[in-house]
Design a protein that fits this description.
This protein has helices spanning 28-40, 61-73, 92-100, 118-126, 131-137, and strands at residues 8-11, 43-47, 80-83, 108-112, 143-145. It is of the alpha/beta class and 153 residues long. It has a single domain, classed as Alpha-Beta Barrel (TIM Barrel), CATH 3.20.20.70. Strands 1-2-3-4-5 form a 5-stranded parallel sheet, covered by helices on one side. Helix 1 (28-40) links the parallel strand 1 (8-11) and strand 2. Helix 1 (28-40) packs across helix 2. The longest helix has 13 residues, at 28-40. It starts with 7 loop residues before the first strand and ends in an 8-residue tail after the last strand.
């Protein structure tokens, strides 16, 4: 018996930026348009790398929150993932501070096991008494990645 197929995950912009061409969605509105098309084509999850207006990948709550709100407002009805990665913030302490300040949460946060700061994510998810614990233990918990391959929670 074959295992059930997992839904396709689409990465809307990844490590690509505006210099890579006009087809790379950068603004929240462009990301939403791409996400709606991807879901219509069968994507079961959307991975988005939120960016500042100048195109830098960011984990700032002032960037992540509006992107997620625009995607949800556009009717993207599949899980939304944001990578909490070294690409957006190289310093583990600053990365923790930025993600800890999120008030609009993605459905999943992708954490790469090979990146510095990983033990903090495990502690945050399984320590008690916070909205993070409820989020991490919910069906929409973070995806912990190994060797750069996402493994659904």
């Amino acid at each position: 018996m074959r295992p059930a197929a997992r839904p396709a995950v689409v990465s809307l912009n990844g490590s690509r930026g505006a210099a890579d061409g006009p087809a790379v969605p950068m603004s929240p509105q462009e990301l939403a348009e791409s996400a709606v098309r991807a879901v219509a084509a069968g994507a079961g999850e959307v991975l988005v790398h939120p960016r500042t207006p100048c195109g830098r990948e960011s984990l700032s709550p002032r960037v992540v929150g509006p992107v997620l709100e625009v995607l949800r407002g556009a009717g993207v009805g599949v899980p939304l993932s944001v990578p909490a990665s070294i690409g957006a913030e190289p310093d583990p302490a600053e990365r923790r501070a930025r993600v800890g300040a999120w008030t609009v949460l993605p459905d999943r946060a992708v954490v790469h096991f090979a990146e510095p700061g990983r033990p903090h994510w495990l502690w945050r998810c399984w320590s008690g008494g916070s909205r993070w614990t409820r989020w991490c233990r919910s069906p929409a918990r973070p995806v912990l990645s190994r060797w750069n391959g996402s493994v659904p929670g």
